[in-house]
Every structure is written in structure tokens, then in C-alpha cells.
Amino acid sequence: MKAFLLCTFMVFSFAMITGCQSAETMVLLDEEVREIKVSKSEGLGGINDEESFISFKDRKSIAVFEKAITSAVKQSGNADISKPKYDIAVEYKGELPSHGIHLWLGEDNEKSVFMYITDESVYLTSPEMTIKLRSLILSK
């Protein structure tokens, strides 16, 4: 009986430890997104929301951006990278403020990099999400 309890305790402890080590991902507000605006970036810390060159209002495109953003996994350390290629403004329905995100769009089969404009943490997408983002952003 002691061996059973010890084994059960060890399995439970392992499950708790590994469960707490899940990857941290980016988050968006729990509100409906009405539009995604993409613009050429002017640098870190701000967003070029005055000169968006692409705007997505259709649910399918918005869903791709939402999935790419919310599945991007935080990397350890802070950013030490060049000027971002794009700025993304996530616009919500109603009077809510928008989310400003920098994007370094990867090449095909590479990961892309996201960063909140107010933070230096880096989040990586999957290569599959990069392909989807490239098809939206570069098709316009």
C-alpha cells in the first residue's frame, strides 16, 4: 500500500510540474476583432497606424491573424533584433483600444516573430503560420 501511495504521489507531482510548464503565448482581448490593419513599420515601440497598406475585415483573414498571434510562443530573454518589417493593429468592435504588435515576417518554412509594441518579449509562430501570414500580407 505504501508503494502504491508513493507511486500515485509521484505521478500526480509529475503531472502538476509538467502542467505548470506550458508555453506562454500571446493574448488578445476576449472581444470580437473587427479589423486587422498592417503597415510598414517605422521602428520599435510605436505603431505606424496612419499608413496601413492592408486592411482585413473578413472573418477568414481575421481568424488567421488571431490564430497566428494567440499561438505564438514566448521565447526566453528580451529582443535584440532589427527594426520590425510590419506593424499590426488589432481593432476590436466597440470603443476598445487596439492592440499594437510588431511583426518580423519569416520566409517560407521559417518562423515569424511577434512582439507587443509595449514589451520586449519575443514570440515565435510556427512555419505553417508564417506561410498563412505571407499569403495574406504579400498577396495585396
From TrEMBL:
Residue stretches making up the YhfM-like domain: 49-137
Q: Does the keyword Signal apply?
A: yes
Q: List the Pfam families hit by this protein, alphabetically.
A: YhfM
**Keyword Signal belongs to the record:** yes
Residues making up the signal peptide according to the UniProt record: 1-22
PROSITE patterns named in the record = PROKAR_LIPOPROTEIN
Which InterPro entries does this one have?
YhfM-like_dom
Keyword terms: Signal
Origin superkingdom = Bacteria
Q: What is this protein called?
A: YhfM-like domain-containing protein
Origin organism of this chain? Answer: Cytobacillus oceanisediminis
